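Protocol step 4 of 5: obtain the predicted structure for the target chain.
Materials: sequence only (see below). No template structures provided, no constraints applied. The aim of this step is simply to have a reference model before the mutagenesis design in step 5. Sequence pasted as it appears in the construct record:
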Amino acid sequence: MKTASDAFTRIDFLASLAALSLLIMITAGMTRAEPARTAACHNNLRQLGLALLSYADDNAGTFPPRGLNPAWPERLRPYYKQLAILTCPSDGPNPRSLPVNPTNAADSAPRSYILNGWDDYFAAGGLPFTTPFPESAIAEPAQTILFGEKVEESSHFWFDYAQSDDFSDLEMGRHHRSGNSVPSGASNYSFADGSVRLLKWGAALYPVNLWNVVPEWRTNGVGF
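Step 4 output (structure tokens):
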């Protein structure tokens, strides 16, 4: 004879199976979705990289000067048009930016990416940071980063290695992270030759610092 206790046990068992099946389906969906999000982020950075290089072609071979009114998202907007490419699908729902002037929609828009600040170049040459950076100063375009991914909480527009922004601003493991473990995963980077590459956590900084252009700054021996 079946008892009420038996019935509830079987119902609980079936409910557990259903929940487990749903969890497996969700996990599988997330597994399939992550490569698509990574690819979309890759494409965003490709467009931003090409926008920056096109800007340089139209501005005597120089990149946008450092400044906040406008900053680089607004200065480059004629070359990329759609504000949606400023955000990575794998980022949080509202990555920070810094709306200095509300009329500059691109500067105020949610943003997942950060532009190289070239502070090693300015420091080595004793130049003010507001000087437009010349593309010709990049001796190794295929090994020099233009754009990377920033942490969701950072509102910075430029990455400054000399100010230790590597750990406070850079998101080096947004994609393919192993659970919540850090360091792990990888992030996308746009390079000065127009390419975009997915680099494992830390590979953009060591053994060669791909954010820098001054030779002695590139081989700085930073370890993890």
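Step 4 remarks: The chain is about 35% helix and 10% strand. The chain has one domain: 38-218.
Proceed to step 5.
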